[in-house]
């Protein structure tokens, strides 16, 4: 027996020994940059017109500049490449550009570059993914080398919101190397220059010392995609990376237990439950939809499932949407009243409904748990809810095929503008599940109101109407959570972008 | 022999064609990529236009015919998401996946063959029982759990190895161990069973009776005859390792084919999914062919016709 043991473990020991001897014994890894950010996903392409992916934007925003950006409180816009702007007539937004800004290869950033960026994004030949973002604009006109006008089809109050993501690209370089190559080796005007990209492994950027806003504090900046949550958290715990995105709610405690790491948060997606108010018999009635809002205990969801990292909403408006009215009460949890309203509406015995959800859909935190909790709460007022779990692409197909009866959804784009109100609730845009002439009228008025005060008033009216008409079960706006090493000065911002130009790392 | 190889390659092409057919239809019928690809506020018209530009609005058999036509000319299309031709995207990840799969295979063979042999020779001893118990554990542990445990123990607790990513050899250790463990367990059991079978044969008894040393009997006579089923399994195992690397690659942020495939499937990046599957199918078919050719080397009685 002793001999057999030796015979068996010798080769094993040999292999393990050989492997271990090849390792740098516990040595710290050489870091590829002063600051390393780990996101769930890698860059799709560096060509900003061909992506709307958040992880990609977060890298690109450090390479490119935009005309304007959202202020840190999320309520107004601040000039970037644009020194100033004005509405010269109801459909013409004119921007004065900062002078002397140069792309990393020395090419000048002027009005022609802005026009080139817009035109190439809208070019049908290029089939860009970002074209839909700018369809409200008819054309871009160069007024002089440093003045450029964006002309909309009709008065369009949220022009700046749409333009905050338009990253200006260098016409000369693009024409020279072609779009494919540009998508792999970009040149921008931003605080960092592209250095290298090993797909699915890392992107490395280096400081642009000629940046118009002054030298960035970091010399090098890297992005490392790590899709698995546990591995991302392990990486920040070890100090291999400095910032991680998309911290899942059930790992908050774990992260809080790491002394060198803090949590940074920003307001994220609005989570709502859409109802088919056009085909599902009970949901055609406003009383039933209101009853459902009374039946769901959204405060409890926020408190117990989201651990308080969410803001209860009193309608489809975000707190940052112009016209948001905090005096409007959120639907209180009142199952008794819900039951009564359902009975009065003709459903004393309850109703049957399919509830579609996709657990990790569009970043919905704890999607499955939220869905089950809601189903349980609706059961208490007589809702016989059947949960149907699908993946994101499948739920989207059914969504546009108008097959869903009730669905857990999220909106994550420019909340401050209220663009979602038009996209989701106007019958002319996506009238899949809700159409109401009064809502259409109020939404039109809201988007045509260019004067901020008038816009707020129109917003309040719209908000109050939609709260009462209850096209959805209103839930909450969840927080996006980031893990940040305590020696890093970065904070999450409301425009969903990770600009690193002012960030520094203490030792 | 040459005719045999040609015939097998032709069969492989047929298989790949069949795979392409299935994948093409399944991926297209199971979800709509336009929402995932365009921004949230894209209108109905935007999405319709995009679908038209990509040709998604044509009847599916027309789309398939167009795909096959282009594929025969070596053009597998462009990724909807990465906006690059798909074939280079897939091929540039192949080395990482092969590296991981081979490392895992080396780990598993290096451990499994000696462990299995000794287990068989010292059958029913404590060593044997312990090995089989270990094999049972190895086969039952879910890869994602094992991978995360590996990270927590070797990277976070003892700070020996990097948590994830690809770089030097240090980055390879944990994913290779994680991926290799399951095969190790399987191959150990197989080697043990095969050896037990062979050891009972007359020619082994003869070898021993002749007074040959243990080592010679076990390694020259018994092991060599055990290897045929082992090679078969290893061939299949290689396929599993290439395909099964999906989870391991995701956990360890390993830039391989599996991770590419998962992302592509969730995003319904049709051309990319097709390319990944076709390339994987080719690799699988070639591996199997190599395995079949190995038989002849191991057992000269096998003839290829």
Labels describing this entry:
heterodimer, A: 507 residues, alpha+beta, eleven-stranded mixed β-sheet, four-stranded antiparallel β-sheet, 17 helices, 33% helix, globular, B: 305 residues, mainly alpha, 13 helices, 0% strand
How would you portray this structure in words?
The complex is a heterodimer of chains A (507) and B (305). Chain A has 507 residues and is an alpha+beta fold. Helix content of chain A is 33%, strand content 21%. The mean pLDDT of chain B is 87. Chain B starts with a helix and ends in a 7-residue tail after the last helix. Chain B has 305 residues and is an all-alpha fold. The longest helix of chain B has 38 residues. Helix content of chain B is 77%, strand content 0%. At the A-B interface, helix 1, helix 6, helix 7, helix 13 and helix 14 of A face helix 2, helix 3, helix 6, helix 7 and helix 8 of B.
Write the layout of secondary structure elements.
The complex is a heterodimer of chains A (507) and B (305).
Chain A: H1 2-21, E1 35-38, H2 54-63, E2 68-70, E3 77-79, E4 82-89, E5 92-97, H3 111-122, E6 137-144, E7 147-152, H4 159-163, H5 171-177, H6 179-184, E8 192-198, E9 202-207, E10 220-223, H7 229-238, E11 243-244, H8 252-256, E12 261-275, H9 286-295, H10 298-305, E13 310-312, H11 335-344, E14 351-357, H12 367-379, E15 383-389, H13 392-400, E16 406-411, H14 419-425, H15 427-430, H16 437-448, H17 452-469, E17 472-485
Parallel strand pairs in A: 1-10, 1-11, 14-15, 14-16
Antiparallel strand pairs in A: 2-3, 4-5, 5-7, 6-7, 8-9, 9-10, 11-17, 12-16, 12-17, 13-17
Chain B: H1 2-29, H2 34-37, H3 44-54, H4 60-72, H5 86-91, H6 94-121, H7 126-140, H8 143-157, H9 169-199, H10 202-209, H11 214-251, H12 257-266, H13 270-298
Helix pairs in contact in B: 1-13, 6-7, 6-9, 6-11, 7-9, 8-9, 9-11, 10-11, 11-12, 11-13, 12-13
């Amino acid at each position: 027996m002793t001999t057999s043991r030796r015979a068996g473990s010798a080769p094993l020991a040999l292999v393990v020994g050989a492997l271990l001897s090849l390792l740098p014994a516990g040595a710290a890894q050489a870091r590829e940059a002063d600051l390393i950010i780990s996101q769930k996903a890698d860059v799709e392409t560096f060509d900003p017109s061909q992506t709307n992916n958040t992880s990609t934007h977060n890298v690109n925003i450090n390479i490119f500049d935009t005309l304007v950006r959202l202020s840190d409180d999320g309520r107004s816009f601040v000039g970037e490449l644009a020194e100033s702007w004005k509405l010269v007539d109801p459909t013409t937004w004119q921007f004065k550009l900062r002078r002397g800004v140069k792309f990393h290869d020395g090419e000048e950033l002027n009005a022609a570059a802005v026009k080139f960026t817009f035109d190439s994004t809208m070019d049908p030949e290029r089939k860009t993914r970002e074209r839909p973002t700018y369809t409200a604009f008819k054309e871009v006109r160069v007024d002089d080398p440093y003045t450029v006008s964006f002309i909309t089809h009709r008065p369009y109050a949220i022009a700046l919101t749409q333009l905050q993501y338009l990253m200006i690209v260098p016409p000369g370089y693009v024409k020279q190397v072609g779009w494919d190559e540009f998508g792999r080796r970009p040149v921008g005007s931003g605080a960092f220059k592209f250095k290298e990209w090993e797909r699915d492994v890392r992107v490395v950027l280096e400081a642009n010392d000629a940046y118009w806003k002054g030298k960035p504090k970091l010399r090098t900046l890297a992005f490392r995609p790590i899709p698995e949550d546990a591995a991302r958290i392990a990486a920040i715990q070890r100090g291999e990376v400095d910032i991680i995105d998309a911290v899942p709610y059930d790992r908050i405690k774990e992260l809080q237990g790491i002394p060198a790491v803090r949590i940074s948060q920003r307001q994220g997606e609005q989570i709502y439950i859409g109802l088919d108010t056009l085909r599902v018999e009970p949901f055609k009635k406003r009383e039933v939809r209101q009853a459902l809002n009374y039946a769901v205990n959204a405060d409890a969801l926020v408190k117990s499932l989201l651990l308080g990292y969410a803001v209860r909403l009193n309608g489809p408006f975000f707190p940052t949407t112009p016209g948001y009215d905090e005096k409007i009460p959120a639907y209180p949890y009142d199952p008794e009243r819900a039951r009564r309203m359902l009975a009065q509406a003709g459903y004393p015995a309850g109703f049957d409904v399919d509830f579609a959800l996709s657990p990790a859909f569009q970043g919905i935190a704890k999607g499955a748990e939220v869905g089950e909790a809601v189903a349980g709460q609706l059961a208490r007022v007589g809702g016989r809810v059947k949960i149907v779990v699908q993946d994101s692409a499948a739920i989207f197909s059914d969504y546009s095929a108008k097959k869903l009866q009730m669905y857990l959804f999220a909106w994550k784009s420019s909340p401050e503008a209220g663009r979602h109100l038009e996209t989701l609730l106007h019958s002319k845009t996506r009238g899949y599940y809700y159409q109401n002439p009064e809502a259409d009228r109020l939404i039109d008025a809201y988007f045509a109101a260019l004067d901020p005060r008038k816009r707020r008033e129109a917003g309040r009216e719209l908000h109050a109407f939609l709260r009462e008409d209850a096209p959805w079960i209103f839930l909450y706006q969840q927080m996006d959570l980031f893990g940040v090493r305590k020696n890093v000065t970065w904070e999450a911002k409301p425009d969903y972008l990770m600009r690193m130009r002012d960030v520094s790392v203490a030792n | 022999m040459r005719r045999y190889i040609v015939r097998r390659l032709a069969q492989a092409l047929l298989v790949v064609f069949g795979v392409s057919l299935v994948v093409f239809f399944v991926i297209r019928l199971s979800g709509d990529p336009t929402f995932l690809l365009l921004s949230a506020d894209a209108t109905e018209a935007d999405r319709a236009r995009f679908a038209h530009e990509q040709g998604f609005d044509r009847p599916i058999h027309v789309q398939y015919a167009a795909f096959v036509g282009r594929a025969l000319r070596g053009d597998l299309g462009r990724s909807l998401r990465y906006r690059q031709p798909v074939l280079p995207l897939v091929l540039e990840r192949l080395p990482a996946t092969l590296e991981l799969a081979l490392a895992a295979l080396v780990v598993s063979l290096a451990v499994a063959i000696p462990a299995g042999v000794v287990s068989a020779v010292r059958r029913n001893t404590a060593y044997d029982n312990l090995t089989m118990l270990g094999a049972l554990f190895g086969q039952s542990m879910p890869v994602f759990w094992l991978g995360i445990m590996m990270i927590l123990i070797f990277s976070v607790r003892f700070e020996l190895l990097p948590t994830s990513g690809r770089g030097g050899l240090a980055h390879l250790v944990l994913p290779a161990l994680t991926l290799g463990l399951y095969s190790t367990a399987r191959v150990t059991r197989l080697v043990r069973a095969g050896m037990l079978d062979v050891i009972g044969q007359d020619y082994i008894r003869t070898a021993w009776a002749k007074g040959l040393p243990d080592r010679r009997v076990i390694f020259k006579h018994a092991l060599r005859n055990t290897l045929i089923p082992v090679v078969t399994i290893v061939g299949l195992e290689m396929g599993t390792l290439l395909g099964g690397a999906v989870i391991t690659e995701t956990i360890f942020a390993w830039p391989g084919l599996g991770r590419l495939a998962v992302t592509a499937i969730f995003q319904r990046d049709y051309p990319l999914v097709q390319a990944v599957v076709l390339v994987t199918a080719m690799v699988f078919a070639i591996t199997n062919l190599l395995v079949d050719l190995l038989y002849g080397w191991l057992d000269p009685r096998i003839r290829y016709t």
